[in-house]
């Protein structure tokens, strides 16, 4: 029986920035064995065959005339995962076809890479399991994924600082208590990507923003301070006739009731980032129920 690969917790930004795909039959770093599973290697060396994602479904599209393929966008604060479910994922296809958007979901799935003739790489997720969850589950996933990502960044930077490459780097990492999977991924990543300090800082900033969103979302407001977010939610419920709220109309009504345009922009921006609302189209804001 073949052991299943661990489902990695990873943010959309790191996943979508990945262009290194290791196909079955590819050589390993010593050129003397082959990978059986398919792996995507990220710019910091995360080695992904399967992944675990929690986020907000903001779009579901039927791509087949006979309802054979469904595509969904699952959003976290750093970006969006693209998910495809077809005839070989019947339960996921039925789930997506009947899902009322927006909704919080948890997905375990296989990482896939599509490489057209122009050489571009498009990564996606093929779901194995998909379920509705509460926002608290999403928040816990953000915390867990942030901690794991920061740990991988630290390990990557340590590996980069050694100046080693190939099997020498792999051996060094394993000897310093790095898992064989991450050691292999980092070794392959350093041999392929031109990951620089700017990218590392971008990724760190994205992770920190995720943690700040959780802290803001779980902190209690002072009894003497109005809850501006709840105030804007009530306005959006008042204005929404089912298709979302015009952003300009939201600002105008909020200003009439004493909230500045800058405050509306800041609070709505935070709500968009943490998945409490989304833009079904430009200029329209809709709550995640």
Could you walk me through the main structural features you see in this protein, from its secondary elements to its overall organization?
The chain has helices at residues 12-16, 90-98, 135-162, 166-175, 180-190, 197-218, 228-239, 247-256, 261-273, and strands at residues 7-9, 20-22, 39-41, 47-48, 50-62, 70-76, 79-85, 103-114, 122-132, 245-246, 277-281, 284-287. It is α+β, with helices and mostly antiparallel strands. It has 2 domains: 7-212, OB fold (Dihydrolipoamide Acetyltransferase, E2P) (Beta Barrel), CATH 2.40.50; 228-287, Arc Repressor Mutant, subunit A, CATH 1.10.10. The strands form 3 sheets. Strands 1, 5, 6, 7, 8 and 9 form a 6-stranded mixed beta sheet that branches. β6 and β7 (79-85) form a beta hairpin. The chain is globular. Residues 220-226 have low confidence and may be disordered.
Notable traits:
289 residues, alpha+beta, OB fold (Dihydrolipoamide Acetyltransferase, E2P), Arc Repressor Mutant, subunit A, six-stranded mixed beta sheet, three-stranded antiparallel beta sheet, 9 helices, 42% helix, globular
List the helices and strands and how they pair.
Layout (H helix, E strand, L loop, with lengths): L6 E3 L2 H5 L3 E3 L16 E3 L5 E2 L1 E13 L7 E7 L2 E7 L4 H9 L4 E12 L7 E11 L2 H28 L3 H10 L4 H11 L6 H22 L9 H12 L5 E2 H10 L4 H13 L3 E5 L2 E4 L2
Parallel strand pairs: 1-5
Antiparallel strand pairs: 2-3, 3-4, 5-6, 5-8, 6-7, 8-9, 10-12, 11-12
Q: How many structural units, i.e. domains? A: 2
**DSSP summary: helix tally:** 9
Number of strands: 12
Question: What is the CATH top level name of the largest domain?
Answer: Mainly Beta
Task: Please state roughly what percent of the residues sit in beta strands, choosing from under 5%, 5-15%, 15-25%, 25-35%, 35-45% or over 45%.
Answer: 15-25%
The H/E string reads EHEEEEEEHEEHHHHHEHHEE
In the CATH hierarchy, the third-tier topology of the largest domain is known as: OB fold (Dihydrolipoamide Acetyltransferase, E2P)
Average of pLDDT: 86
Low-confidence stretches: 220-226
C-alpha geometry: globular
Largest sheet: 6 strands, mixed
Helix content: 40-55%
- Class by alpha and beta content: alpha+beta
CATH superfamily of the largest domain: Nucleic acid-binding proteins
- What is the rounded Rg? 21 Å
The assigned CATH architecture of the largest domain is: Beta Barrel
How far apart, in Å, are the first and last alpha carbons?
A: 42 Å
